[in-house]
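Q: Got a minute? One more chain.
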Amino acid sequence: MRQLEARNNLTLLLDGWEDVLKRSLYGSVAAKVNQCPVVLTINTLLSVTDKALDQMQVNPRKFIACTKDNPTTMHTFCVRLKQKYWWLLTFACFLHGLNTTIGEISSYPLMKKVILQAIQVVTFFSLSHYWGSQLKEEAKKQGIKTSLKQNCESRWYALVRHCMSMQTYRSFWSHLDQFIETTKPLVDAIGNLESRQTTLADCMLELIRCARTMTCLSFDKDDEDVGFWMHAKSVFNRRFHEMDTDRHSLALFLHPLCRQLAVLQVANGHSFEMMTKTALTIAKQWQWSKSHADALVSDLKLYYQRKAAFVGSQRDALDWWESLPISSKKHPLKSLAIVLHSIVPHAGDIERLFSDLGGTQSAKRCRLSVPMFEKLGKLRANYSYHLHKLPPLTLVRGDADADSIEGPESLTVDDLARAFDDFKRDLWNSRAAAVAEGEEGLLDGGEVLEGNMYNFKELEKVDQGVAPTAFEDDIRVLDTNPVAADADWDMDAVLASAGIIS
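A: Always. Here it is, folded:
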């Protein structure tokens, strides 16, 4: 708990997992960008997460956001959590969104059949000792160092890597090549966003890069299926709009390199007025005073115009805002930007926690109680925190068996068929929950891949930066003092006074 004492603006990560005994376990982790996570609780009930903060003597006001996976139970719990902790900003796991996009693209009937055939081939060589060794010898002769992958029961991006391993051994079916070419940008995006340095702005940049890459894909009418390409395009466009929320767009706008990229003055793009309304919505949720709201709008205008202290840019957005030589009390935009860039946008740390705990269960060791799981999880996270400070060890491995074909696994064609069925059911439930909460988007997103939503030329300028200047400031958007007397201000009146709307 000493790790949390000096930290503010934390993100509460929530995710679920099913162990060997088919128990539904829910984990909660306190995380922050560029910081090692701290395990709070692992239990069979989500409701205990709320009590864990009191048991561990953690001030709830240290948390500014909650990032969750997207099942219906998780969604319902976050609604109740937000009712108690009104200042929390809730986000869906961005990696889960990308993963769901791959799964929905994979559900195209023709590609589903091709994937099942590919798994049958991999399963045959993985389960056959003789033919597996024959394939291994032939791979050495051909200079192929990659192995066949089969671990794609629930993670759809691993399914694409499975198909890519087939492509390495042979230019398999043309439809398989088309599937890999279409989904690989999403797989690369997931790999690029899994780190603890990832911010909301980084997620949007990767999503826009995916759109740019998919726009450049060529299509062969003779060998490839036009129906699949139209299906993949429709799925990506729709999912793009679902993941490109107002808060994600605001975080992208508050990246000093992306203010021109984030604001596109066209009908289909995001306007500066939308960015200002989103910032004021957050300020009103945090119950800022009207004077702070007026100062926030003034700062946004200066930032957008690159005037006063907001001149310059840098690749690391969080470091740039923390280094600005201005006071966060006089310039509340600094507080808002630092908080948004400190939010962890994915539940990857809980995924790693459950993955590590999964290795402790086996056929001979499957009677571990839930409290024991929680203790093991906290111990492992604490050990990882201290090992992270040690210099890395140099691992020397031979190349004889380093890239050998992976051994037999439990995945079968029936397992994948059930995974598709489960995915279809979960997708239906998540959409139903979104409709119930009024969050279902109405746009089909046809303009995303045409470059009318974001300017791809502006994306090429993002990699430029300037040197920062050192400056430290104490950032607290939730003051310990009572709520301001004038916290009940009108958003439209603030916008009108600033001349943004008439």
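A: The beta strands are 10-18, 24-31, 38-43, 63-68, 89-92.
Q: Perfect, thanks.
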